[in-house]
Specification:
Length: 426
């Protein structure tokens, strides 16, 4: 693996509340690992090649903690619907096409092409219930340089005739076959168990997936407490549960600290659910763009942070309309302001610093030491050209960084590094 130095205007979170910046500084990568950011290049690194990005911003790569690859090509459609209608009218009919491998190949090529060119260096991805198409997606993802988890979706009820597995047994058997096919096949692409959500999965299937997770030491991703009608439906489907999160808990799918489950949304997670999420070391994937588009609501992220729950940001395409993580940062800040103003003034809005942290180190921690330029972190970096974002002021690095999120269309990704590898350059 190569070792080198990047020179430019560096910014990353020192803590959740504080962004550390160095103007015209040096960022050292040794064998894919960050050795730190410096104002003056230390003697021991003087012999390394320096890539000169003077005048450009250098920030940690971002983690998209929740995104649906097969929904990418219809993003921005059906946005006047709420969750369950949107799923039935748009999402399920679209995902049914992925039984056709040629369709999947083409559609996934659009997704992977754009992901490679996005701000994300890591991603946790839903595919569909189709094994061949999911392997195709994973093959394509491996070529993007992005490090990812990918889930073949399990769903044995409420999908209609076209998008539903025949039984829990069939679903579990297909999952095992998929896992056997992808086992050891990739360096950057890993499988994750993916029950779509409780309404899509019978008790038997959920129990089977919980057991499979334990047996094969596999992580799980799913959805939790997104929309009021969904929450009410889960209570009907699993009447013995004390809350939606408890329904996952009953089936042993909430994971643990070392094998954390990702739960997207958590808009309606109350104290009881927060306790369960915290107890299991679960991650919340905060998807505020999606939550606004489908009129789901606003997740109280400040409360989750105060409770010590692990959180990252997801774009949730296609309920989220874009894979752009800078836009996701902006949406999260704006949503938190509306929560503070309209719902509860004891819950302070998210600051730019805190939200940038969630998009980098917050979600990145799901992959280990990822999302920071502190010493020992895996070297994921974005070199951003913000020169087209004109200003009459002499801006600080911190101000320029904030502006990139508010004017993301004017920012160009110049270079992208994942674990020290230059995976994309303009
Ligand atoms: Zn989702």
């Amino acid at each position: 693996m190569s070792s080198f130095v990047l020179k430019g205007d560096i910014a990353f979170n020192e803590t959740r509340e504080k962004i550390h910046t160095i103007e015209d500084g040096f960022l050292v990568c040794e064998d894919g690992i960050c050795k730190g950011a410096f104002e003056v290049l230390p003697d021991e690194y003087q012999n390394l090649p320096v890539k000169d990005f003077t005048g450009k911003l250098i920030v940690p790569g971002m983690t998209d903690l929740h995104v649906h690859a097969p929904q990418y090509t219809f993003r921005g459609i059906g946005m006047d619907l709420e969750l369950l209608d949107w799923l039935n009218q748009h999402t399920f009919p679209e995902e049914a096409h992925y039984k056709d491998l040629e369709y999947a190949k083409k559609a996934y090529s659009y997704f992977t092409y754009d992901l490679k060119r996005s701000f994300s260096t890591r991603a946790v991805i839903f595919a569909t219930m189709h094994t061949d198409a999911t392997v195709e997606l994973m093959d394509q993802l491996e070529e993007t340089g992005v490090i990812s988890y990918v889930g073949r979706v399990n769903m044995d009820r409420n999908g209609g005739v076209d998008l539903q597995e025949a039984s829990a047994e069939v679903s579990l058997q297909e999952t095992r076959e998929w896992l056997a096919r992808v086992n050891g096949r990739y360096a950057k692409t890993f499988p994750i168990l993916t029950p779509r959500f409780i309404p899509s999965c019978s008790d038997e299937l959920m129990k089977g997936l919980g057991a499979l997770s334990e047996e094969m030491d596999l992580r799980i991703q799913s959805h939790l407490s997104e929309n009021p009608s969904e929450v009410a439906w889960v209570k009907e489907l699993v009447p013995e549960s004390t809350c939606y999160a408890n329904a996952y808990e009953i089936f042993d799918t909430m994971g643990n600290e070392a094998r954390p489950t990702i739960m997207a949304h958590c808009v309606y997670s109350d104290e009881k659910e927060m306790e369960i999420l915290k107890k299991h070391g679960a991650y919340i994937a905060h998807c505020s763009d999606s939550n606004m588009n489908l009129t789901s609501g606003i997740a109280p992220i400040r409360k989750f942070m105060d409770a010590g729950i692990r959180i990252g940001i997801g774009t949730d395409v296609a309920a989220g309309s874009s894979m752009n993580m800078l836009k996701a940062i902006l949406n999260a800040i704006q949503a938190s302001k509306m929560y503070y103003r309209l719902v509860d003034q004891s819950v302070k809005p998210l600051t730019f610093e805190e939200t940038f942290y969630l998009a980098t180190e917050g979600g990145g921690s799901y992959f280990g030491k990822v999302g920071s330029f502190k010493e020992g972190y895996e070297f994921d970096a974005l070199v951003l050209d913000d020169s087209k974002m004109y200003s009459m002021r002499n801006l600080s690095v911190r101000e320029r960084l904030e502006r990139t999120c508010y004017n993301d269309a004017d920012v160009i990704i110049s270079h992208k590094y994942v674990k020290g590898e230059n995976t994309f350059q303009r």
